[in-house]
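Q: Can I see a sequence and its folded structure?
A: Here is a first one.
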Amino acid sequence: MVELVRAARAATMVPGAPVINDAAILVDQGVIKEVGTFTALSGAHSGHIHDLGDILLCPGLVNAHSHLELAHLKGKCPSGQGFVAWVEDLMGQPIFDLEPDQLDSAVRELKQTGTVMVGDIATRFAKEMAGMLEASGLFFAVFCEAIGETVPKKTFIPSGEFESGFMSVAGHALYTTHRDVLRAAKAETRDKGLPFSLHLAEHDEEVAIMMSAPSRFLDLLQARGRLLDFEPPGKSPVRQAADLGLLDETTLAVHCVKVGDDDIQTVRASGATVCLCPRSNEFIGVGRAPWEKWFASGTPLCLGTDSLASNTDLDLWNEALYLKENFNGELALMDLLAMVTRNPARILGAGEILGTLEPGKAAAFAQVPESLQALF
């Protein structure tokens, strides 16, 4: 059925395009056919009109980084005590006990708060998570997480065909995934034309491990039989990732908290996209990424909620509110909206169907909260 959707204003997120006042979007079978003013489009339309009222409409949100496998740990992990304390507690939790009711609740929250696509990290249950997301109606990219020292004989990515998404591979981190595994994982995504994700420069312990400095976290891992033959590269995490060939225009580098000016320029020059997770970083207590420097550098940025083991909810609008309220300097509304629409859609391989409101794209919308608009 052809439908005309009206809103008082619409931010199409097409680069350079202004906000449309008295906006209308012509939709046919879930696909946008035309975008313009209500006056221009309503005259030739005789079908149903869905008037959304006095709102600011934007493309559906894309949560660039989550760990839905941990949905059942909401409210069960310590906050503000630092990374080592958080990990120690996490290791004592039933982290691999999937709970369908909690997963359903997490998906409902994503959908109810305007999210239409999620980039999800799956440590053990990639096919299950992809199947669950496919059934949910959300678009998705499920990253099978590579951890450890062993390169698989055939592929990192399980087989599977999906209508609303795909599976790829992510490296867990530079210190938990052997350099050969990271290189092989990145090579597979490059060969298959898929995005690659990596937790990068998240906390001080990661920097210490890379630089061969004393590390309580390294002691913890080695006590569990991990990283016994780890060779510190003597470089910053970003420099090591670059030297391993992990950073390019198809890489999503997540967190990027513990970085210097040289690191920022290295990432910017590589073409990689950075996913900031401000509330997760604050929850765990790892510090605050230099958001302002990342933004000023011109590095493509997006936002992620991370897991419910390190956040209070999966509402991407709350992530955007937190960033804006604590940002030092100018940050325009359109720049912030790009972080939750156009930028993550592109890096997650969905730029042809999501991220902007224009003909040919999916008719997936979100309403910009008045609380966020009031900050501009």
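Q: Show me another, different protein.
A: A second, unrelated one:
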Amino acid sequence: MPELPAEAVAQWQAEGADLVELLATAQRRLGGVAAFRLGPRPTVVVTDPEAVQHVLGRHPDRYVKRSHRARMLAGEGVLSATGEAWKRQRRMLQSQFTGTGMRRYEHRIAEAARHAADRWAGHARTGERFDVGEEMRHFALDTVWRALTGHPLDDRTDGELASVARVVAALPTLPADGGDAREAVAADLARIDAVAHAAIDAARRGPDGDGLLRVLLDAAVERPEYTDTLIRDELVTLLVAGHETTATTLTWLFLLLDRHPEARDWALAAGPDGSPERREALQALVSETLRLYPAAWILPRHAAEADTLAGHRIEAGTDLLVSPYLTHRDPALWPDPERFDPARFTTPGARPAQLGAYYPFGLGARACLGTQFAVRETTALLELLLPAYRPRFLSTPAGAAYSITVRPDGPAPAVLRPA
């Protein structure tokens, strides 16, 4: 297998660059399946669409997830669970995120979008400065909280759950020792636990409902593995996965529209308010944002057995890093890949046909459960905000921070002006 020279790795280490720079160097020099060494064994970078399908889509039992960085936050929830436990948990939740299952949450998504629009109307009236990223975090958290509990997000819970974003942002820099890492974020984890257990207790005391938390509590009646600890883990997993990526995507989208106002005009000109054409164009804005800033920029896998990948021998025990971020920016797949062009997703033949060329929510058995939920909530919000407002940014982040998601590396303060 082609392997990045040791001196290139040493230079990366000396410069203290982000991991994405090392992976991009390996891809650029060696192609869509390449290796580098940070220790005695090679790590394999996978960005080629056919190899991506092989690893994620065709052989998920051969290329497995091991310990997830978010385990200390999400525990044994479906995001970090493995093996048979993961299969059982995913099957139980799968029905909640199909087209039929999603219908029971559509009114809650619409309510959260209207609430966010009311907040923006207030900002526009007063001319006050606000942070777009924080507004998107509030909207996404409010949406998933309504889906979980049936209730809007109150101010106290909102404040306590700011701990989620702090823990997620801290994960890449936490100590290697698990005990030390947990101690570093112990106060935030305690706040999250308190919110989760209070929500579980309230749902258990309250009337029956059709929220996701009720689904988990009902499962506990017949499935002994659904203890309060596992219900807490699933609840926190859904909170993390259900709001962090959506908030980040929407923040990037508004920053991109600030640099490319013609894209906003293109989407609104696609059709009248509420039309399928308008909705398709708004979804294209989101899809192109996710191309540049996918929900998970890197997907670690571990070879449970020996295999051949794109003609290269993969030994059992090899670590692989599948990177949607780099696949989506490959000029061999996406012409002029750094250009923000949502028409790629509405023009026939404008995007690559290979399944493994675009996978912002992953691919195969472990693809994100909440893809449909995320698409519907982002579109619902944009239908209300985009025709009415143009944020004027007072400053913009200088770049990106690579954690579980690719986040803007600073605040995005703005004031609102009518469209």
